[in-house]
């Protein structure tokens, strides 16, 4: 599995909007593995906070 996947804005959902491509790929992997949605949202929020 590649470390980084290129995603277009069309492929992004509400959880992966605004994060960089690597974090978006990681979010997708977490969702595919069945990780709780609240934990995925926490990761997204942390990713967006550290982006600035």
Structure description:
The protein is mostly helical and 52 residues long. It has one domain. It is 52% helix and 0% strand. The chain is built from 2 helices and no strands. Helix 1 runs antiparallel to helix 2 (37-51). The protein is globular and about 30 Å long. The N and C termini lie far apart (29 Å). The model has no long low-confidence stretch (mean pLDDT 82).
Number of separate helices: 2
Number of domains: 1
Biggest sheet record: none
Approximate strand percentage: under 5%
Q: Rg from C-alpha positions?
A: 10 Å
Order of helices and strands: HH
Mean pLDDT: 82
Helix % is: 40-55%
Poorly predicted regions are none
Distance between the termini: 29 Å
Give me a quick take on this structure.
With 52 residues, the chain is an all-alpha fold. It has helices at residues 21-32, 37-51.
